[in-house]
Amino acid sequence: MVPIQLSTKADTLKSLKPILNKAKIEAIFSFTVSDWKINKEEILKEIQDKFSDKIVVRSSSINEDTMENSMAGYFESVLNIDSQNSSEVIKAINQVLDSYTQKKSSSAFNQVLIQSHSKNIIMSGVVFTRSIETNSPYYIINYDNTSSLTDTVTGGISNKSVKVYKKVKLHKKNRIYRLIESVKEIEKLFPSISLDIEFGINNKEEVIIFQVRPITNNKNRTDDKEMNNRINYLIDQFNILSKPLDNLSGDYTIFADMPDWNPAEIIGDNPGYLDYSLYDYIITNEIWHKARTSQGYYNIKTGKLVYLFGNKPYVDVRKTFNSFIPSSISKNLHKKLISFYMDKLKRYPELQDKVEFEVLFTCYDFSFDQRSEELREKGFNEYEIKELRDSLVDLTNNLILNSKLSIEEDMNSLKILAKNRKAMKIDYENDLIFESLKKSRFLLDDCREKGTLQFSRLARLGFIGNILLKSLVKKGIIPNELLESFFLSINTVATEFTKDFDNLLIKKKDYESFIKKYSHLRPGTYDITSIRYGSNPHLLKSIKSPLSLSKINKSFRLSSELSERINTELKREGLMFSATDLFEFARKAAEARELSKFEFTKNLSDAIELIAIAGNEMGFSRKEISFLGIKDLFQQFETKKELINYLKKQIIIRKNKTEINNKLFLPPIIFSQDSFKIVRDYSPKPNFITHKKTIAKTLKLEKNSQNSIHLNGKIILIENGDPGFDWIFTKGIGGLITKYGGVASHMSIRCAEFGIPAAIGCGSLYDKIMDKQKIILDCANKKINLMEIK
Fold it and tell me: Is 295 left (phi over 0), alpha (psi -120 to 50) or beta?
């Protein structure tokens, strides 16, 4: 094909119309502003002669689709106009012309574009022939398949998105095959230019092109060969990890970012390598499954849970699902359950952050009979269901009846952890680099043995308490309001933090003692580049505490009537504890879980600071150190020079890899090697906390946001929240929305504790909510409604 020139919207479409074979362009007519002023009647007659049905009146400004400015959706377009109704046509044309004037882009050379209104559109959207942000070799398709309006995406509302690697070979039966083929045809006409193509697909599966414009960012194009090598490497990595393993049921695995230990929430979607390495070292390499095995679950024996694909951390779902099978379950039933779990997640990927509540059977709860119906439908017989039920009842009874002693033992271990940390001294007679790294390793190793192992067990108990209580609501035994009241009555370290903050403000507590108690916290618990509270005093300054003490510590009382009803249900289900025991267990587990997290992160925080000190002594910034892993830092060398030279090389290698990985698109869930080349988002299913409704403006926060930003009354947006973000609850926030997080994640617990309406784990929906946008957060009806920004 002979290359053609990009011009105005109208002229480009006119050039394309006679030469496209794989897509079509509707009947087209255009005129300039000066033409309209001089020959209005003639133009109107020509429109009515040329078009017999509905038309679209669109802008075609000389400034609109240039190499320097896209201005997509900037000017007016008017749809569904009756071509034979002169007043309607004139009104629509004037609307377009007025938009030129209002946007200070008036010119006699500006055009107005008239096209036939496309019929029976089942999908509409835009395709970018390269990524706008990174210039990576992907087709970025933003589309809407729920509306027939062809300007849905151009106007800034995109329901769905798929990224297609440009070298992928699509099957002809693939729904987007024809679209991609038509885009490739247009690309050949504009070599070396990245394009933004607006399209529609009708019920005959014909691709209709509405607009072709250049993408203004055509600089710094990614090395496509390098990208191809990287994607093939990730596919090889996936294939190796997906092979059958002797000790695990399941012939394949799935990788997801939130089903267990929530890496996307805790260390982020694109963490520094050190963040990932620390998380792996103290929890997800082996501690997580050792804790689970000690509580009566299947021993998977081989332990690494979280892997990096590119820069993104993923959980090995096969390991997670196997680790949640009670150890008493027979081998055949174990295998059958894993098959059921994997299949359900494939069918409902939006449940990946709710697997413990809606996919797996990890303990016995009051919804078992209802949920087991699904097992029957999938071929489980009555004997198998009874075996599962009995195993879960035994496991649940054992954990709850022995919880008083087990919680006490784990909390005592945390006391020893604190004692060891306080007793640790830096020997300044030794070289500060090696001494700092040595003591950092001691803190992390002690944390694994006496901190994260205990936290893992306590977190499991907290989950079980949460599951049991929520199932009481689900079965209608207790009202949801009672459960919310119970959560508000729990005293955790966050409650204590807010009380201490109140006392600080009214001078009942001095700043030095306050900061000493909370100095180890940082927004981004594993992130060495994030400054901790002790070094960031501005973070906690405020005129007044918007959360009054009356909001915290609400009393909770279980009536004798409800207590008796729960006791009857417990006895019927074969559970050997009382209603009082259950609520007391849930309270103690929740409080212990949060306190243990607070304590073990002190070791982690101090270890990170010692690593930073060693890095500084070697001349490395915190950002440079973030490219290193624990194994790099703990390598044994005879001299400082050898260590520094080795770390320099590792930083350069890791930095280069990170830059390449930053240009990859990766999905929330990897089901197969195709997931690396066709990247889809699934429809999110946020976890709504409380039944409240609030209307407020949003405010996006980053890790090191300062208190100078007024949070009071606003709905706060954070991608992922951990204990280091607990300071936001001292600011009287009106609500919280996160991109990552599960139903029992840190921020879910916090919002339930403080009665703050929240939508946790919104996934791709999060990206559609803009900063300073007014929204309606309706938790009772599980809705987030975006309002017009004014």
Answer: alpha
Using a CB cutoff of 8 Å and minimum separation of 24, what contacts does 633-637 make? 633/437, 633/440, 634/437, 634/441
CA atoms of 764 and 664, how far apart (whole Å)? 17
Name which of 313, 328, 235 is nearest 278 in CA terms. 313
Q: What is the 3-state secondary structure (H, E, C) of 126-181?
A: EEECCCCCCCCCEEEEEEECCCCCCCCCCCCCCCEEEEEECCCCCCCCCCCHHHHH
Beta partners for 196?
Answer: 128, 213
Q: Is the pLDDT of residue 768 over 60?
A: yes
Which one of 117, 334, 520, 746 is the catalytic residue?
Answer: 746
Q: What's the whole-number average pLDDT of the chain?
A: 89
- 3-state secondary structure (DSSP) of residue 523: coil
The reported pTM is 0.88
Q: To which residue do tokens 């070298």 refer?
A: 167
Tell me which H or E stretch contains 96.
helix 86-102
Does 746 participate in catalysis according to the annotation? Answer: yes
Asked if 417 contacts 603 with a C-beta cutoff of 8 angstroms, the reply is yes
Pull the structure tokens for residue 655.
Answer: 């930095």
Quickly list H helices, 256-381.
263-266, 273-279, 287-294, 317-323, 331-347, 355-358, 368-377
Q: Which two tokens stand for residue 314?
A: 């993923």
- Adjacent-strand bridge partners of 197: 127, 212
Helix (H/G/I), strand (E/B), else coil: 583: helix
Confidence of residue 755 (pLDDT cuts 50, 70, 90): confident
**Residue pointed to by tokens 């350069």:** 652
Amino acid at 100: Y
What are residue 220's phi and psi, to 5 degrees?
A: 50, 50
Give 468-512 pLDDT, tens digit per residue. 999 999 999 999 889 988 988 888 887 888 788 778 777 777 878
- And the tokens for 131? 């990524």
Is the confidence at residue 151, as pLDDT, over 50?
Answer: no
How many degrees, rounded to 5, is the angle at CA 399 between CA 396 and CA 403?
A: 140
Domains of the chain: 27-117 (3.30.1490.20), 119-222 (3.30.470.20), 679-786 (3.50.30.10)
Do 625 and 476 form a contact (C-beta atoms < 8 A)? no
Residues 602-625: pLDDT tens digits?
999 999 999 999 999 999 999 999
From residue 673, give the alpha-carbon distance in Å to each of 233, 239, 304.
Answer: 11, 7, 21
Q: Are 611 and 440 in contact (CB under 8 A)?
A: yes
Tell me the per-residue pLDDT of 657-706, one tens digit each, with 9 for 90 and over: 999 999 999 999 999 999 999 998 877 788 898 889 999 999 988 766 55
* Helical ranges in 402-452 per DSSP H: 403-423, 432-447
For residue 262 the two structure tokens come to 């929530």
Q: What is the DSSP letter of 297?
A: B
Nearest by Cα to 609 from 424, 764, 387, 400: 424
Cα 347 to Cα 623: distance, rounded to the nearest angstrom? 40
Amino acid 548: pLDDT: 46
H/E element holding 44?
A: helix 40-50
Tens digits of residue pLDDT in 64-114: 655 445 455 568 889 999 999 999 999 999 999 998 888 888 889 999 999
pLDDT digits (tens, 9 = 90+) for 249-306: 999 999 999 999 999 889 989 999 999 999 999 999 999 999 999 999 999 988 899 9
- Spatial separation of the C-alpha atoms in residues 611 and 620, rounded to whole Å: 10
State the pLDDT at residue 788: 56
